[in-house]
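Summary of Year 1 activities. Much of the first year was spent building the evaluation harness for sequence design. The harness presents a backbone, in tokenized form, and records the residue chosen at every position. We chose the following record to illustrate the format because it has been used consistently in internal testing since the harness was completed.
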């Protein structure tokens, strides 16, 4: 399997997974997002000085909903390309393992490193939450959390392979992986906290965060599943000439 072929497989898997995640987010999370936007509008109206009209939306909700699906699909495609590249570097030399299992394992690692570990420190917030003046600071801290999460998961993966090559038992391998991931989480926890006020009801906040986790599960799970299925399909022997 060549690298360009793996990249094409990753792109297709990522686009489909992104589309699935976008449609899921539109169906499941849209009511929560709409409620948060209405609260944001009411809050802005209450704080409008001198009875001036509130700022009008640049895009309608319909356009925003369509843009959500498009953005998620494009993001999934980009993620799929990176997924295919990492798959090529980590697994292409080991032809003994099945693509299905390899892809699911890599997708699980990506979910933990790219999303879950940073999420534990900086959970997702509904639209309108956060001071615009601190957006650069919050973005930099979030990106640093992703870097630490990816490094932690990558190091844990490498350590497991090394211990397996040395013939160490699986409990030792798994405990070493867990220790490295916990160390990465501790490093993420040392990053600056988000001190911006959250002015939405608690139930709405947690519902939004749970749906964010579910959407990411759809994205990463779909990416691993479609990539693995395409890999299994590629391994099927070609039909012999003249076969019925």
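For this record, the design step produced the sequence shown next.
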């Amino acid at each position: 399997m060549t690298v360009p072929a793996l990249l094409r497989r990753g792109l297709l898997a990522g686009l489909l997974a992104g589309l699935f995640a976008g449609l899921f987010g539109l169906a499941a999370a849209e009511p929560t997002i709409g409620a948060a936007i209405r609260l944001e509008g009411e809050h802005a109206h209450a704080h409008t000085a001198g009875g001036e009209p509130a700022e009008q939306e640049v895009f309608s909700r319909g356009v925003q909903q369509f843009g959500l699906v498009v953005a998620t699909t494009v993001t999934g495609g980009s993620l799929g390309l990176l997924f295919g590249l990492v798959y090529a570097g980590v697994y292409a030399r080991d032809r003994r393992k099945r693509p299905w299992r390899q892809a699911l394992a890599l997708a699980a690692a990506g979910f933990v490193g790219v999303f879950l570990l940073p999420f534990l420190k900086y959970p997702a917030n509904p639209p309108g939450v956060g001071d615009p003046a601190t957006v650069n600071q919050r973005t930099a801290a979030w990106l640093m959390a992703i870097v630490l999460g990816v490094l932690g998961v990558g190091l844990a993966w490498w350590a497991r392979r090394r211990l397996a090559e040395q013939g160490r038992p699986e409990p030792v391998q798994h405990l070493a992986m867990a220790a490295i991931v916990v160390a990465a989480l501790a490093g993420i926890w040392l990053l600056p906290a988000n001190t911006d006020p959250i002015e939405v009801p608690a139930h709405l906040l947690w519902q939004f965060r749970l749906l964010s986790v579910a959407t990411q599960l759809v994205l990463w799970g779909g990416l691993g599943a479609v990539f693995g299925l395409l890999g299994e399909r590629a391994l099927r022997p070609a039909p012999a000439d003249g076969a019925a």
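The CA atoms of residues 121 and 230 lie 35 Å apart. Quantitative recovery figures across the full test set are reported in Table 2.
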